[in-house]
């Protein structure tokens, strides 16, 4: 267990791993703080069956975790984390997020998962996440894939209560729309 570690100017309050050779399995990250990735900061790690709870602080990227390009996150739970960008998770391009649960995370921008290009999110559940600006649950900055996810009861004060697509690149959806019941002040139509 990684509990209560870090400070507001550092990266990786719980764990800092600069390379992509880091594998974490069955870990718990709780009440850690950092400017980037309060629980975990790593470049392209493999993270399996971990729990991230109550990490972050209001001026950070990735309240629970900040994962570099090509990271793999599988079977993890992210709950009650907070950040400025990506209340639960900030991830670089080419990342894969599978069978994860995102509950009650919050941020100024993107309550749940804040992604760069070509990220795949599959088989995940996102509920009760909130953003003061856009993307209650998921922000797909530069295209990617969201498939077979349940996205319910998320809130963005401005746009994209469920998913916000940020650029003109394609974001593909499969079996996600019927399960979406998120709320937003407006809906952006940039998704294709």
Overall structural class, as computed from helix and strand content, comes to mainly beta
Number of helices: 0
Q: Major β-sheet, in short?
A: 7 strands, parallel
- Residues in helices, as a percent range: under 10%
Query: Main sheet: which strands, in order across?
Result: 1-4-7-10-14-18-22
Q: Rounded to an integer, what's the Rg over CA atoms?
A: 14 Å
**What portion of the residues fall into strands of 2 or more residues?**
35-45%
Distance between the termini: 41 Å
Overall mean pLDDT score?
A: 88
Q: Can you give keywords for this protein?
A:
192 residues; mainly beta; seven-stranded parallel β-sheet; 0% helix; 44% strand; globular; disordered C terminus
How does this model look, in words?
With 192 residues, the chain is an all-beta fold. It has a domain at 1-6 and 23-91. Helices cover 0% and strands 44% of the residues. It contains no helices and 26 strands. It has strands at residues 2-3, 15-17, 23-25, 28-30, 40-42, 46-48, 51-53, 65-67, 72-74, 77-79, 82-85, 89-91, 96-98, 101-103, 106-109, 113-115, 119-122, 125-127, 130-131, 138-140, 144-147, 150-152, 155-159, 163-165, 171-174, 183-186. The strands form 4 sheets. It has a 7-stranded parallel beta sheet with strand order 1-4-7-10-14-18-22, with no helix packed on it. Residues 185-192 have low confidence and may be disordered.
């Amino acid at each position: 267990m990684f509990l209560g570690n870090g400070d507001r100017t550092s990266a990786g309050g719980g764990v800092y791993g600069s390379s992509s050779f880091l594998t974490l399995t069955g870990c718990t990250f709780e009440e850690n703080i950092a400017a980037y990735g309060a629980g975990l900061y790593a470049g392209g790690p493999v993270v399996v069956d971990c729990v991230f709870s109550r990490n972050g602080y209001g001026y950070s990227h990735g309240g629970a975790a900040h994962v570099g390009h090509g990271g793999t996150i599988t079977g993890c739970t992210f709950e009650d984390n907070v950040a400025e960008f990506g209340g639960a998770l900030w991830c670089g391009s080419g990342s894969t997020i599978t069978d994860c649960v995102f509950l009650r995370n919050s941020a100024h921008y993107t309550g749940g998962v804040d992604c760069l290009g070509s990220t795949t999110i599959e088989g995940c559940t996102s509920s009760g996440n909130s953003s003061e600006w856009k993307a209650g649950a998921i922000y797909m900055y530069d295209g990617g894939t969201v498939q077979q996810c349940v996205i319910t009861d998320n809130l963005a004060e401005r746009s994209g209560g469920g998913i916000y697509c940020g650029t003109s690149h394609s974001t593909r959806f499969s079996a996600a729309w019927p399960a979406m019941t998120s709320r937003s002040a407006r809906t952006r139509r940039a998704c294709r």
